[in-house]
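Section 5.1 Outputs to date
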Amino acid sequence: MRAPIPAALNRRALLRSASCGFPLLGLRSLLAGQSQPASPLSPRLAHHAPRARRIIFLFMHGGPSHLDTFDPKPRLQTDHGKPVPFERGLTFGEDSVRGLFGSPWQFRRYGESGLPVSELFPSVAQCADDLCVIRSMVGDGVDHGAALLQLHTGVFSFKRPSMGSWLLYGLGTENQNLPGYVTIKPTLGHGGQSNWSSAFLPGEYQGTPIGNSGSKVEAIQTEPIPWLGAKGIDPEQQRFELDMLQKMNRSHAAANEHDAELEARIQAFELSFRMQTEAPEAFEVEKETEATRRLYGLDDPETRDFGWQCLLARRLSERGVRMVQCYHSYWDQHSELVKLHTRLARQVDKPIAGLLKDLKARGLFGDTLVIWAGEFGRTPWAQGADGRDHNPYGYTIWMAGAGVKPGFIYGATDDFGYHAVENRMHLHDLHATVLHLMGLDHLKLTYRYAGRDFRLTDVAGTVHQGILS
C-alpha cells in the first residue's frame, strides 16, 4: 500500500514553500474537458484477488438479542426462571437481574442447510441457505458508545478511521462522482460522526451521511444531501465561486500542518461539485418498478423506512459506491423485549430479504458482501420483568454473499448463550476477515501518523478462514 507523504513534507508544507496555485488545479479540467491528476479515490490494486467488490452493512443499533434471533438455546428454555448458575461479567442492570430467561419465540430450521431462525424473521428465514451465521462474536465495549466505536473503527478509547474509510484508502472507489462510503440515517449519538470519520486519514476517505436516525424518509428524498445543488447559478459561476472558497481554505490549511477537519471540508466541497451530475439520479428510488418497491416493502408504512434504505443501498452499490451502511434503531430492550423486538424485526425483515433476493436477481450477490450486525448481543437472564442487558462476551452476526460459506453456522456460545466458546471471533478478527474478503491484507494496510504505523486491526486480528467459501 502506498505510504503517506511524511509529515515534514506534507501537501500543505509543499504548497506553502513552493507558492503553488493549487486551487487552479481543482476541477476546472472537468469543465474544460482536459485530463486531471489521478484522484486519491481512484481505484487501486488490491493486495490479493478479492472475493468482494463492495459491502452493504445493515447495522441494528442498540444490540438485538442473539438468543431470540439466530442462536437458539434449549438449555435456557429448560431452566427458564432459575437462578443464574455462572459468574456474570460487567453489566449495567445489576440491581434488576432476574433468573434465566428462555426465548419467547420459537425457532424452526429452514432451507437445505436446516439453519435455525427465530419466528421474528420469517422473510429472512427464506434466505437461510444464503446466510453465514457467526455465533461467536466478541467485543470489549459493554456500553453502546464504546461498542459502536470498536465495531466501526476497531478501538473504543480513541478517535480512529472507520472501516469504510480504511477501505477507501486501500482500494479507492469505482465512481468519482459519488461518495465512496455512504452511511444512511446514522445515529448522532454513541460516537456519532466518529463512527464514519476518516480521523487522521485524508479527508477524501470520510463517510458521507444521508440524513440521520431522526430523519423522515420523505424529508431525505426531498433533499438527500443538503446544499448539493446550486439553484440559479450556472456551472462556470459555481466553479469560480468554489475556487475562490477553496483558495481561502487552502491558504488557511497551509498555515496549519495538519487540520483534518478543514481537509475534510475542502474535499467535501469538491465531491459535492462532482456529485451534481450523478447523485440526483442515484437517489430516484421512485423510478424502480412497482414489483421492486413491493419486494423491499415500500408499499407498507411499517417497512417503508428501512426498505427505502436497503433499496437505496443497492442503487448506490451498483453505481460503484464501495461501502454503504444502513442504520436501524433502536434495539436496546432492557424492558419490553417481546413488544419492541417484535416491532423492530417486522420493520427490517422483509426489506433485508428483499435486498438479498434483489442482489441475486441482478447478478450482484456474488461480489457484494452483506453484513448484518448490532454492537453486541443480550444477556441470557432477564433484566426486570421483560428485558435483557448488554452482552459483548458472545453474540451473533451474519454475512451473506461474496466469499462466505452459505447456509453455514460458525462458532458457538455456551449452553446459555453468554460466552463464545468455539471459534471466538473478536471484532479485530472480523475486521481482518472483511478486509481479506475485499482483497486487503490487514497487516499491510497501514498509515503512518504521529510517529507510528496504524491499521484498522491495531496490533491484533486474525483472518478466520473457516467462514470463507
